[in-house]
Design a protein that fits this description.
Blueprint lengths: L8 E3 L2 E5 L5 H10 L1 H5 L20 H13 L4 E7 L2 E12 L5 E8 L8 H17 L3 E6 L4 H10 L2 E12 L2 E11 L7 H9 L7
Length: 208
């Protein structure tokens, strides 16, 4: 079981909290409005063997049931991103591995209407801080399509290192897509990721 879940993380007007079945209406409304905005970055299911059609996408409730099961098993932290009381996106810490690796990966999306306001950098900083300082993970990885400039700027601003490219890494928007790998270990952010982001937001940091 995951002793670090469920949890709510707060920084100013940004909140990360567990995704819930009762978020369905609000989540689906935000997802519907942003369908075109998100399609280029959204994971898809590849066709099966011999060109068999891909399976049907899960329903919202099936998705939440799966995410909650993974969270209970200690393999995932499935958050929604809330800004000023409104659901505006999703952030998932996935692939949590313990033992000699102690690592995880982060994926996220945000409503186009509030993009560029520092919401996702704040959410990433909150989740990284929690993973390093509370859960005791050692490494966080974020994989991003090279064409996704706004998402790349989020992790570059926070000081993630680029580790190169993974060719045809994930099935996105109907095909296998290359991804850039960004990573960070806890030793690289001794001041704490949230403290780093606060300094950057206030103009005291040195990163662009």
């Amino acid at each position: 079981m995951n002793a670090g879940w469920p949890v709510e993380l707060h920084e100013g007007e940004v909140v990360l909290r567990p995704i819930r079945a009762r978020d369905q209406r609000e989540w689906q409304e935000v997802s519907r409005r942003n369908r075109d905005w998100l399609r280029r970055w959204e994971a898809t299911v590849p066709p099966g063997p011999a060109g068999q059609a891909a399976g049907a996408r899960p329903t919202y409730r099936q998705m939440v049931r799966f995410l909650r099961g993974e969270a209970s098993a200690g393999r995932m932290l499935p958050f929604v991103v809330v800004h000023k009381g409104q659901l505006v996106g999703q952030l998932t810490v996935g692939g949590i591995t313990w033992g000699s690796m102690c690592s995880a990966n982060i994926g996220y999306w945000v409503d186009e209407e509030v993009a560029g306001r520092g919401i996702i950098p704040t959410a990433v900083a909150l989740s990284v801080n929690y993973c390093f300082r509370t859960l005791g993970l050692h490494r966080i990885e974020v994989c991003i399509r090279p064409e996704n400039g706004p998402s790349r700027r989020v992790v570059e601003k926070l000081g993630f290192r680029s580790e190169g490219i993974r060719p045809r890494y994930l099935h996105i928007d109907g095909d296998w897509r290359d991804h850039l790998v960004y990573a960070l270990t806890d030793e690289e952010v001794p001041e704490g990721m949230l403290e780093r982001w606060r300094a950057l937001s206030s103009g005291r940091g040195t990163r662009n």
